Automatic annotation (TrEMBL), chain A:
Classification lineage: Bacteria, Pseudomonadati, Bacteroidota, Sphingobacteriia, Sphingobacteriales
Name used for this protein in its record: Cu-processing system permease protein
Record key words, sorted: Membrane, Transmembrane, Transmembrane helix
An example molecular function term from Gene Ontology annotations: ABC-type transporter activity
Transmembrane domains' residue ranges: 20-36, 48-68, 89-115, 121-140, 152-177, 229-246
GO CC aspect terms: plasma membrane
Automatic annotation (TrEMBL), chain B:
Domain (Carbohydrate-binding/sugar hydrolysis) ranges: 42-176
Name of the featured protein: Nitrous oxidase accessory protein
Pathway the protein takes part in: Protein modification; protein ubiquitination
Pfam families xref list: NosD
Stored NCBIfam families: NosD_copper_fam, para_beta_helix
Keywords: Repeat, Ubl conjugation pathway
Amino acid sequence: MNNKIIKYVITDLLRNRTILVYTLVLLALSLSIFMIEDNTDKGIASLLNIVLFVIPLVSIVFSTIYLYNSSEFIALLVSQPLKRQTIWLSLFIGLATAMSLAFLVGVGIPTLLFAPGISGITLVIDGLLLSLIFVSIAMWTSVRIRDKAKGIGLAIMLWLYFALIFDALLLFALFQFADYPIENLMIAVCMLNPIDISRILILLQIDLSAMMGYTGAIFRNFFGTHSGMIITFIIMLLWAAIPLYFSTRFFKQKDL
Amino acid sequence: MVVGISHAATIKVGKQYPVTTIQQALEKANDGDTLLVYTGHYAEGNLTIEKRIMLIGIDRPIIDGQHKHEPISIRTDDVTIKGFTIQKSGHSSMADIAAIKIYSGKNISIEDNILDDNFFGIYLQGASNCRIINNKLQAYGKAEHLVGNGIHSWKSNNIIIEDNEIIGHRDGVYLEFVTHTRVERNLSHNNLRYGLHFMFSHDNEYHYNTFRSNGAGVAVMYTQRVRMEHNIFEENWGDAAYGLLLKDITDSHILNNTFVKNTTGIYMEGSNRLQIHQNNFESNGWAIRIFSSCMNNTLEQNSFVQNTFDIATNGSSGKTTNIFTGNYWDKYEGYDLDKNGYGDVPHHPVSLFSMLIERYPTAMILFRSFMVTLFDRTEKMIPSLTPENLKDEKPLMKLPTS
């Protein structure tokens, strides 16, 4: 990792108009939600949809576009006496910091101001992790695909898959196997989608009463315990680390 | 009566008096006498009261059953027991041993006692015109079969149960074949099974009670003409826990109650002609689960705020005869153009997803997913699975101030 590169990427991104607009839109949305809803848990529920939908979309699409646009800058860096791994990780840190910062200002601060409870904190941590994860996935798609249009297309497809299609498939599978004891399997399958993990973690805070019911209790027994929480957190971190690892490995050997 | 009073004597019991045991005093006493028991520890096995006396504790004497005996048995009318701590009754799986057991009698008052670590607390059988007021009952049951009910009443009538606190028993208050009884201002919490449980107990009234964190909430069954008003049902959590479970309850009134943070607020099965008005449902998993076996119920002016699901039902087709009108729903998205305070379009409180959950409980894991929200929206536009008739024609626009 190289501090100069990180610093350059961050300052470049913070001057970027898209990031600024993204921050302001998030801020306007979260402020208006909290101003309208007098009940904080209901506010969190409305904000949840934004966090689960918008954050992954912007994180993955913006990062992909940024990486393609900086391909010349990256080529220049590679010609310098720098390790490729350092360049790539510095780019990731820069992007991740900028996206997290935008999220923190846009959603984090209003949430912690208006709803400073466990549900609020969970929401903020979830949003931060989702930002990291989708930046990491963007690193992987953009390094694998040389063509910019195809790369952005894949990024959008991946987002669609995680945000919508995965749940539809899950619902379909659930109907097919409803006669079997699939609750524990469901938890395992949900681990395959970081958006679902974040959603369930918040669900356990704001719909606690319903989650105390029969199947809810099974989820609660897993996610509600310390070991379950730690496992979930590790899996979220793995979701950020694994695409980054593969993209770094690929970038090292890539013919630029 | 007047003659009785003029002959009434007062017998003092205590270390410093000639009569040192309650047993001796009971033997000496005549009908109408008052026994004043001074502070101390009285472990005298079973005390059977067969005379019409007042047994009054001064400075809270302790009557101890030593985990072997039934401390007090009452086998006559007109008895008062006041101001004692009664503890450690025997346990039995054959007999229902209680701290105070009434073996048929009338005009009995049990007031201001502390009942600690007993099997059953106060047990009435074939009693009438009794008053159970301001007692505190605590048990430390680990499992349902190891502990009895707090206030248990069987085949009794005209009982007044007021201002008691019941903790850690099996059922807080249990009434079976009990009629014309008033249960008021009691606090029943952390009991292993039900906070309140009654069966075949017609014409009773339950007002201003609080039922909190009981193993399975409150269950009431096979009863007619019940009035439940201003009660609070809260934090009854679990798969089989209900704020209020109504099974075969008919012609009853459930008014002005508050249901907060229950997994299921009200669970209704086979219940007909109930008036459920002006209740508050807040932060429940399911505010009301109403089965298709329920008919001709009226739900009016209730408020539903921040429940995960407001109404769930099992039957989708068929005509529902339950009337929902003038309720406040925080999920209502309609408008009020004529400004009469009621929404202009009906509200359908049953969401598609709540129907799905009834059939596929595991689907709960997908709640609040964007996919599910999309389904719910589509269903609202073109209803196909949700019961078309179950709707509120006059949804309130503003939360009624209560």
